[in-house]
Amino acid sequence: MENGRHSGGALAGCASAVTVRFLHTADWQIGKPFGRVQEEAKRFRLQRERIETIGRIAAAARSGEAAFVLVAGDLFDSTTVPKDVVLEVLEAIGGFGMPVLVIPGNHDHGGPGTLWHDEDLERQRRRRAPNLTVLLERQPLVMERAVVLACPLLRRHDSTDPTAWIGGLDWNALPADRPRLVLTHGGVQGFGGRDYDRDGDSQGDSMNRIDLAALPAAEIDYVALGDWHNLHQAGPRAWYPGTPEPDRFGQGEEERRGQVLLVEAERGGAPQVEVVPTGRLGWHRLTLRLAGDDDLDRLQRLIRERIGERVQSDLLRLEVSGTLSLTGHRRWDALIEELRHQLLHLRLRGRCDQAPGPEELERLVESPDDPLIARVAGELRQRLAAAEQAEAAAEAGDAEAGEGAALARLALCELHRLARRG
After folding, report:
1. More confident residue, 10 or 318
2. I want to staple 349 with a disulfide (CB 3.0 to 4.6 A). Which of 264, 319, 366, 421 is the partner?
């Protein structure tokens, strides 16, 4: 491997084009804090899994007979990752048995004073991972079987296209027989890919924006992208691999996370791309309206379909609305408590209300042992029915009626509690 430019003729003058297999990955984000997970032990489990994923990436590269690995930015989650974490990552990369080429992304950008310029890190890299090359300059890297056009991010937010320099290349000064691979990080024009990060890290759409149409299509054989955390083909020869280990809740069923790409490319040919799974943890999202206790059974079935009996291997974002009976709500509380122990993380959104079911309400109204409770329950039942009727009549939602219904339900719940205690 060497830096620089080699002379070469046009593709038509080559006896045969070189074919190369390599592994494309991005957005490892080692050191991600997972601050929304409250339990320290579970945060540690998530952080450890990201480091252990490196071994699965190496196995995928070796089994796929990759000549090298391209990491399209954000190997680390920040420019201030603890040194012990960096050393562990270097040790893991050192065991790949092949070259690993990395560019800085927006999280671990290559600006002055960042970890990529640390002299001790460079010394440790030479010692522990001599196969690792960090590309900090926007220039071609000529390899034995490919030319890598490195487009590192030199600051977290850049209003210029990191690939713009490629337009000024003298293509005749590069080997004509070797595939040309763009290694870059950022969003692409025409693809609104920043929505994935609604929970935190999103930057402005105008930052780190790549114009794929501006790249000379006849001269480029593959564009290895990073930054979008889902699998996505951004163009005929441009791919986002997504994160090798999922790191957030998806926005839709078609999203694919937890994989790398095994790519076979040749000069002037269409790349062949194979998706290789590497993720181990499950990040699930469920949305359900609970219109009755039967819906609680359906919710439990949906959770079992996604998580099964796995323990400490899944995260769930659960969005609920609606009302359960008092008996059903006790089951709901027990289910949530069980999930908090079984899951790595449970994020609840919305609210599950409670109100006496028809049978529970009938027992209150006809309570023979306490006429006072029976009379109050009857009055509350009438108020609840009137409030629900007013609420249903207002399509946009009647705030006053909704408040009245909520108060009536709350009063009935308290009345039921008092009746059970008595």
Report:
1. 318
2. 319
Give dist(CA 40, CA 31) in Å, integer: 14
- Locate the DSSP E strands across 357-421: none
Cα distance between residue 111 and residue 114, in whole Å: 6
Residues 134-177: pLDDT tens digits? 999 999 999 999 999 999 999 998 889 999 999 999 999 999 99
CATH fold of the domain at 2-277 = Purple Acid Phosphatase; chain A, domain 2 (3.60.21)
Mapped onto helix, strand or coil, the DSSP state of residue 265 is strand
| Contact yes or no for 210/225 (Cβ under 8 A) | yes
Tell me whether residue 5 is exposed, middle or buried, using C-beta atoms within 10 angstroms of its C-beta: 0 to 12, 13 to 18, 19 or more.
Answer: middle
- Residue 93: count of CB within 10 angstroms of its CB: 22
Measured CA to CA, the distance from residue 151 to residue 45 in angstroms comes to: 33
Is the pLDDT assigned to residue 373 strictly greater than 90?
no
Half-sphere exposure of 44 (CA within 13 A, CB side): 3
Burial of 338 (0-12, 13-18, 19+ CB in 10 A): exposed
Distance CA 99, CA 1 (A): 9
Question: What percentage of the chain exceeds 90 in pLDDT?
Answer: 67
Question: In whole angstroms, what is the distance from residue 12 CA to residue 177 CA?
Answer: 9
Of 322, 313, 244, nearest to 284 by C-alpha is 313
